[in-house]
Fold:
Amino acid sequence: MTELLPQWLLSWLGEDWSAVLAYITNGKHLAWYASLQYTLIAAFVGAALALLFGLMGAAMKQARLAPLRWIGNGYTTLVRGVPDVLFLLFFPLAFEQAVEWAIAQAVCTPEQLATATGWPLCADAQWYLSHAAYMTMACVSFGLVYGAFAANVIHGALQAVPKGQLEAAQAFGLSQRQVFWRIQVRQMWVYALPGLSNVWMLLLKATSLLSLLQIEDIVVWADRLGAPNYLAMVGAVHGDWRWKYYLVLFLFYILMTLLSEKGFNWLQARASRGMARAN
Structure:
């Protein structure tokens, strides 16, 4: 990378800083920087899915039909009661093996199914997942887990909208559907955004667990680059520098937190426009 810089700049930096620049722009470090995209994809796509699952869960929790309420309450209770790490390990593995079982029923012979002692049930049933497939399952896992938290937040926000306003809207001739979408949902965001910001923060921190799904994210690369590095020809390149790389990740997540707070403050101000406030 330093070969692309002009000579005057390298001379101005000096030999020591030029060596540092060459080190932090080598191939492995560039791979570390590129792995940031997986963290951001998992965070934003997972957040979008969490919001979708949250809206669906909240709608079912207050549905008129009892079976839908049971499903909504069961979803939020079950998922929130399972540790995040356990769910991230369970869901992708269970989904992968379920797909392999379905493939085995279609391609394996009855003799292979009857005598199978390992997994998959036969060689043809092996499902080789791509990196994109692992990322997809990671995003869905994040969406399912934090969608349960979002569902409770949204459900509470819907209940927080003053009932008098809903009754007044019905008195003016609005249908129940119009009251729900134009009044209740419109004002719900004001009450939901503080709670949803906490859900987003939890999801953002959970992106550090992507390595559990065999994704080479920024945490994996930080551990690799910071581990003691020795070459037979030159001896020790550097000792245990992992704390330095983890410090960079620490600063990265703090920066993301500060930007997120500003973003949610802007959303809160925008959602509150036109709403009456008590003096």
In short: The first strand starts at residue 229 and ends at 231. The two ends are 60 Å apart (CA to CA).
